[in-house]
Amino acid sequence: MPTADETDKNRAIITVLGHDRPGIVAAVSTELSERSVNILDISQTILQGTFTMTMLVDLAEVETDFSELKGALDALSERLGVQIRIQREEVFHYMYRL
């Protein structure tokens, strides 16, 4: 069974922010699925026309490296006109600890 540290290294937080329009969830989910990224948890809402989504994903089955995945999400961000960020879970927890 993996330790908490090993689990954190295989997981990442993805955030999406931008003007709401149809297809954002589908496009991001498709991009992740094509790279064998498993979505563990997802939350999305629309705040006065601004789309926000946060995902916890498992990277254990991903065959490309993290920088390639980030590059693919950066390209998707450009195509969709939204901001997409990915951070390893361990980095996210370190940055936002109290």
Explain what the structure shows:
This protein has 98 residues and is α+β, with helices and mostly antiparallel strands. 39% of the residues lie in helices and 35% in strands. It is built from 4 helices and 4 strands; from the N terminus they run αβαββαβα. It has a 4-stranded antiparallel beta sheet. The model has no long low-confidence stretch (mean pLDDT 89).
As a percent range, the share of helical residues equals 25-40%
| Count of beta strands | 4
Average pLDDT, to the nearest integer? 89
How far apart the termini lie comes to 28 Å
Number of helices: 4
Low-confidence segments, given as residue ranges, are none
Listing every helix as H and every strand as E from the N terminus to the C terminus, the arrangement reads HEHEEHEH
> Structural class from helices and strands?
alpha+beta
Major sheet summary line? 4 strands, antiparallel
Strand order of the largest sheet: 2-3-1-4
Please tell me what the overall shape is: globular
Beta-strand portion reads 25-35%
What gyration radius follows from the Cα positions, in whole Å?
A: 14 Å
